[in-house]
User: Fold this.
Amino acid sequence: MTATKSRTMPLDSCEEIVHLRQTTRSWMAEQRFTLVEQTKMMTATSELARNAVVYGGGGSAKLELLEGSGRMGIRVVVEDQGPGIADIGQAMTDHFTSGQGMGLGLGGAKRLVDDFEIRSEPGKGTVVSITKWK
Amino acid sequence: MERIPILKVGEFLLVSIQVDMHDRLAMSLQDDLTAKLVATRAKGVLIDISSLDMVDSFIGRMLGHMAAMAGALGAKAVVVGMQPAVAITIVELGMALTEVRTALNVDKGMALLQSLVAKSCSMDNHDCHEK
Assistant:
């Protein structure tokens, strides 16, 4: 699996959340993902980006177009150096919220994509990677 | 500063969200809408989201809040024009928006608002034009 295109974007403000999700959408439109796939990935990206900005104190996102073994995909990796998540299992459950959201962020994002990976360490930050395959 | 316009149409307010809103803009729309509801004494609000290509949990929560705030101020709210891909996505996200009244398009939303307002009017039987 190789990345044929890659771009790193800052995530420090709510305008940058919009910029990231719009960029994700336009990359997917170029690759002719269906409208539903675009909408799901863009929504999942927005959830993760907001987590990074609001709870992680900001961070960055890496967008990658992937190609290999006859398929292609798009991956978004969102990273922050915030407080981290002590109990990932609990954070993934619906309606668990530490703040103002609906508590659908992580669990909801996972349902919208094909691959979902999360790594977090209290005091060090969180990295979440989501991928949608075509 | 950017703002989402709120138009007065007869006894209703019309909000058409034409841009991908960042969170602060969504919050200011809530404030503007409540202020305008009080200032105009509108009986209903129609929120058109047909240009939104995405509704995430934040925007969904904001739509729910706007509907609830309108209710607290004695007005009815209807969200119209959700794109099919957005409907599929929000259900999978886990957000059914069941507390928000919806209609397919502006025409149907207007008709729904009118019937809701007429109903609540006949129950109050004051401040009412026809009944």
